[in-house]
Amino acid sequence: MSTERIRGLTLIRPWAWAIACAGKDVENRTWEPPRAMVGGWLAIHAGKKWDQDAADSIADTFGVQVPGESEQPSGVIIAVARLAGVVRDSESPWFGGPVGWTLDQVVQLPTPVACRGAQGLWTLPEPILERVHAGWAAARGARP
Questions:
Q1: Which residues of 101-123 are buried (b: 16+ CB within 10 A; e: fewer)?
Q2: How does DSSP classify residue 6?
Q3: What does the alpha-carbon distance between residue 36 and residue 40 come to, in Å, rounded to a whole number?
Q4: Closest to 135 (Cα-Cα) out of 115, 104, 116, 107
Q5: Which terminus of the chain, N or C, has fewer Cβ atoms within 10 Å?
């Protein structure tokens, strides 16, 4: 993982959980990320907002038990994922367009890292980045 290239991406809950825990392999956006970000890493941040309709849709569509709002931490980084590519069409059931950011190598952090999110892509403050690196290494059974 390149410390220079990791960026934060805040998602409304439960979408961050879906990436970290339910196999969501496409993040739908209206805009493309900077070309240099492809192949780079994203810190998946669970925002403060909750979307019950999305939780119901995920449960119905994928047959998974979606933890309720009070069971999902907010204002925290919960996973790290590699931005594998950008598509405008996909066979993934998670694709809704118009732009899909394909994700792979998702690693759920063993302990969420508290952090203020932001719109768009944002840079992790150094102390937060260090905690994310440590959690990521622990999740992979490696040294930070």
A1: bbbeebbbbeebbebebeeebbe
A2: -
A3: 8
A4: 107
A5: C
Separation CA 87–CA 138 (nearest Å) = 32
CA distance 96 to 23: 15
- What CA–CA distance (Å, rounded) separates 136 from 109? 6
Distance from CA of residue 129 to its chain's centroid?
A: 15
- What number of residues does the chain have? 144
The tokens describing 132, both together, are 């994310």
- Written as six digits, the tokens of 52 are 């019950």
| Cis amide bond preceding 98, omega within 30 | yes
pLDDT along the chain (144 residues), means of 10: 72 98 98 95 97 98 96 97 98 97 97 96 94 92 67
Q: What gap in Å lies between CA 43 and CA 6, rounded to an integer?
A: 7
Q: How far apart are CA 22 and CA 32, in angstroms?
A: 23
